[in-house]
Amino acid sequence: MLIDDWLYSIARLPHAYERRVPIDEDMYCDFYLPQGKVYVEYWGLENDSQYLSRKDEKVALYRKYGLNLIELTDEHVKNLDDHFPRLLLKFGIRVD
Predict the structure, then answer these.
(1) Contact 87, 79 (CB under 8 A)
(2) Which element (helix H / strand E) includes 83?
(3) What pLDDT, on a 0 to 100 scale, did the predictor assign at position 47?
(4) Residue boundaries of the structural domains of the chain
(5) What confidence score (pLDDT) does residue 57 get?
(6) 26-57 per-residue burial string, b: 16 or more CB within 10 A, e: under 16
(7) Is 14 helix (H, G, I), strand (E, B) or coil?
(8) Does the global pTM surpass 0.85?
(9) Domain 2-89 maps to which CATH number in 3.40.960, 1.20.120, 1.10.3470, 3.30.1450?
(10) Successive 10-residue mean pLDDT values, the chain, 96 residues
């Protein structure tokens, strides 16, 4: 919810939540930003081995298809104002 609120209220960036990624495999992203064609994944369960395995699979698929990916962790979410604009800028998205 914090990420969605930040994208909407602070950055005012159009985005989709839990959108299907257009690849052969069945995969959904946490957020999609049409500007920059950027997928955002929030990795929140870093202590769960099954979750980490799925994380590795998803990251590999993003790489396989050459998709733009921003990965957020709990550390990023603690201070989105500092981290998210810098990560978005890598894909040409400027947040004022």
Answers:
(1) no
(2) helix 80-89
(3) 82
(4) 2-89
(5) 97
(6) ebebbbbbeeeebbbbbbeeeeeeeeeeebee
(7) coil
(8) yes
(9) 3.40.960
(10) 94 96 97 97 89 96 98 94 95 91
